[in-house]
Design goal:
heterodimer; A: alpha+beta; about 55% helix; B: 5-stranded mixed beta sheet
């Protein structure tokens, strides 16, 4: 990542503080507390209802479903940042793929061919870059931060979309995370199970890389 | 000296032949488009590349020079010594 460079797009979100390692940690804790608040009270209430009146079990089931659904919806929102979008013609896709291939190393090229995602090591951890967003795996590989961000041109081939995000990330990692909207943060397994099967090997690879980070 | 003259001319010719052309590339709906190619030995190609570069910046593109895997830098003037300059559109949070 270029040091001292500032992504010009950050001017459009001047009110946001630049993301740094501390803000990422705070954000992760916030998401943990939020998930706790969306889950535990409902489970406790359902248990209490069943204890006080076993015949209230239909209501208890609804509460348990609520405790399950809300975190799942958040995880789904996180997984959406790695979803593929509409493909252009084969010729355009091939041409764009050639340029993207020149930007990344051999292993990243192989992973992209398999999953459509590009793995990139950064200062904050390991990134998986997709067409409409990117996921940051914190050092240690125990938390992901999902960011929804993209290029505003619907006619671009998929590899060009990835290349746009990859180049912006390489210019200014902190600025990239500042411009992007955070969609989810949590454990990698919560993200992985909501992803299409094709993308899951990329998550495994990113966790493996991040887990050897100090 | 009489022998070295022709040899030097041949070497110079080979060098001119093998000088890699720098490229100005725009990512667009075709995949990418090469807008200009230049070598510092050819002033006309440099001028054309600089003109094309400025036009694209005026249209809202950002120019990026990659420095190997993991590194990239935004440039506002055409770096004549760069191998490839890539033009990208702005990104935004979704």
């Amino acid at each position: 990542m270029a040091e001292g460079a500032v992504l010009p797009e950050t001017a459009g979100v001047y009110w946001r503080p630049r993301v740094d390692a501390r803000r990422l940690r705070v954000s992760g804790r916030y998401w943990t507390v939020t998930t706790f608040a969306h889950t535990v009270p409902w489970l406790v209430m359902s248990a209490l209802l069943l204890y006080l009146e076993p015949l209230s079990f239909p209501l208890a089931v609804i509460l348990i479903a609520h405790a399950w659904v809300i975190p799942e919806l958040y995880a789904k929102r996180g997984a959406n940042v790695l979803r593929p979008v509409r493909r252009m013609g084969d010729e355009q896709e091939r041409t764009a793929l050639g340029l993207l291939g020149d930007l990344i190393g051999h292993e990243a090229r192989e992973l992209h061919a398999e999953t459509g995602l590009v793995i990139e090591r950064g200062g904050f951890g390991t990134w998986l870059v997709g067409e409409v967003g990117a996921v940051l795996f914190s050092p240690g590989g125990r938390r992901v931060h999902c960011y929804c961000v993209g290029v505003e041109d619907p006619d671009l081939p998929s590899a060009d979309r990835v290349a746009h995000l990859l180049l912006a990330l390489r210019e200014d990692e902190s600025g990239f995370a500042t411009v992007a909207n955070q969609a989810f943060s949590g454990a990698p397994w919560r993200l992985r199970r909501r992803l299409p099967a094709r993308a899951r090997p990329a998550v495994r690879a990113a966790v493996a890389v991040a887990s050897v980070d100090p | 000296m009489g022998v070295m003259g022709p040899i030097k001319r041949v070497v110079a010719g080979m060098r001119a032949y093998y000088v890699p052309m720098a490229k100005l590339i725009r990512m667009d709906k075709t995949g990418h488009t090469t807008l200009a190619e230049w070598t510092t030995d050819d002033q006309a190609s440099v001028d054309a590349a600089v003109t094309a570069f400025r036009e694209q910046l005026d249209q809202g593109y950002y120019a990026i020079v990659t420095h190997g895997e993991g590194h990239a830098e935004q440039v506002r003037e055409l770096p004549l010594d760069a191998g490839t300059v890539i033009l990208r559109r702005p990104i935004a949070g979704g």
